Amino acid sequence: MPDEHVPLRQQLLEDLQAARRRDPAARSLAEVALAYPGVHALWMHRLAHRMWHASPLLKLPARLLSQFARARTGIEIHPGARLGRRLFIDHGMGVVIGETAEVGADVVMFHGTTLGGTSMSRGKRHPTVGDRVMIGAGAKVLGPVTIGPDARVGANAVVVKDVPAGAVAVGVPARPRPAPAAIVADPYADPAVYI
Q1: Active-site residue identified among 45, 49, 78, 111
Q2: 139: domain CATH number?
Q3: DSSP conformation class of 192
């Protein structure tokens, strides 16, 4: 899960390098730093998250920073969400990550994805996403479910139950199944193409 004791500068550099490494369209670190809204939203979240946990007096400024990030990038990440290292949000428009969401390391999320709640009660109400998970475009992962490490969630899937490690989840509602060999060979391939 997230390592919040890593220096902020190191996290920001890792985020930049992860986007460059994972996006075949990225030509340079400078391009990623200047033109990738997923990276910008993540960087603002990293700062807002530290503010959120630093002092009760900084919770409102943290929320305001997260709303500024939303207006600038189209990506809404609550400052309370715990995001792991080297997260890559590709394209990003319409991504929503709720307050009690936890995201592991080396996760890839595509545009229009939601890590949302299914109730308005206090406490854990958003998903926990393991390391090296890929979440396809438009996927909705709802409630305090767990997506195991190395799992894949297909485009437009609606996940309301746990997904085991290494499985793929596709459909509405999403049903976990073993990963096809092509998915195992290409960890960023969207399993929705195998429906």
Answers
A1: 111
A2: 2.160.10.10
A3: G
